[in-house]
Amino acid sequence: MEQFIKEFISILRYEKNLSDNTALSYQSDLSKLIEFLVSKDITDFNEVTHKNLTEFFQFQRESNFSSTTTARYMTSFKKFFSYLEANNYIEKNPTITLGKVKLSRKLPEILTLAEIEKILECPDVSDIGGLRDKAILELFYSSGLRVSELINLKQNDLYFDDEIIRVLGKGSKERLVPIGTSAIKWIKEYLHLARPFLENKMKSQNFVFLNKRGTKLSRMWIWKIVDKYAKDAGITKEIHPHIFRHSFATHLLEGGADLRAVQEMLGHADISTTQIYTHVDRQYIKQVHREHHPRG
User: Fold this and answer.
1) 139 and 145 in contact (C-beta within 8 Å)?
2) How far apart are CA 286 and CA 156, in angstroms?
3) Please, where are the H alpha helices in the chain?
4) CA 75 to CA 67: how far, in whole Å?
5) Would residue 61 show up in a list of annotated catalytic residues for this protein?
6) Over 60: is that where the pLDDT of 189 sits?
């Protein structure tokens, strides 16, 4: 069974052009399914029935898995079994009659403008690492980039005269994202005063943001940077790099930005993903009403 999964993942990576992270997510989901099937003495995908899959999701519910996780598994299984059926590896697709999972969408945590400014003031810009971190935080809030997009940014992706950057997003989709003057200022400072001391001609590969070894930063390092400066700023919320993306989108919409424009900037394929931030905006409005209306 694992051979079929390996073949399917290869197709996703090299023919469908899905990112490594997405392909690994499919692989993880399908590995969980194999574990479950083996526990039921099923070793052939031809033997899998609708009932088996229903039992799998029942087990998930009893294990208190979120609806988001369940929906992801559902998508992975449907695509995988459709692939098996299309290639005549199975006679019947057991996912055909699987229903959809209703997602209970959790509103994303955001930072206020005051909290953002506190965090941005924390890095010591007289230090090489601090100047780099300042540029990273400014860029995060100015552009709403994903962590993977930021760490893979290269110097030839920066178009300062046009106040835009070129970003390679999910599924290798390219987009142009505007950035503000403050972010441009601090990135230029970093490129001029810090990056030359971090660069390693053999290893840096033109990446914008580098660690002390001269290689690009890891996702974990970005998490550590964000966590450190949030704590330094006295922020008690649960902080993660994506909170800058959430805050970027919400603050734009609060300021009257067009939803389609925000969708384009974030690189969302489906506008319904962007619409979650309009719900955040409404929550903010209700909070203001409660706090300031005399009979709130």
Assistant:
1) yes
2) 44
3) 2-14, 20-39, 50-62, 67-86, 113-120, 128-143, 147-151, 181-193, 195-198, 219-232, 242-254, 259-266, 271-274, 276-292
4) 12
5) no
6) yes
Q: What is the pLDDT of residues 194-209, one digit of tens each?
A: 999 999 999 999 999 9
In Å, what is the CA distance from 29 to each residue of 25, 34, 79, 85?
6, 9, 12, 19
170 catalytic per annotation: yes
Instruction: Kindly indicate the confidence band of residue 103, based on its pLDDT and cuts at 50, 70 and 90.
Output: very low
Closest CA to 48 of 106, 87, 96, 114: 96
Question: 26, 83, 134, 146: which one is catalytic?
Answer: 146
Of the candidates 50, 78, 166, 242, the residue annotated as catalytic is 242
Q: Active-site residue among 170, 175, 219, 228? A: 170
Catalytic annotation present for 289: no
Catalytic residue, candidates 79, 154, 175, 268: 268
Q: Catalytic residue at 105?
A: no
Which domains occur in the chain, in start order?
A: 2-86 (1.10.150.130), 113-292 (1.10.443.10)
Catalytic residue check, 190? no
Q: Which residues pair with 167 in a beta bridge?
A: 175
105-156 residue pLDDT tens: 566 788 999 999 999 999 999 999 999 999 999 999 999 999 999 999 999 9
Whether the model pTM is above 0.85: no
Question: Is 26 an active-site residue?
Answer: no
Task: Record the tokens describing residue 23, joined without a space.
Answer: 């392909």
Residue 179 and residue 144: Cα distance in Å, rounded? 9
pLDDT: which is higher, 16 or 294 = 16
Q: Which helix (H) or strand (E) holds 174?
A: strand 174-178
> Is residue 150 within 8 Å of residue 219, measured between CB atoms?
no
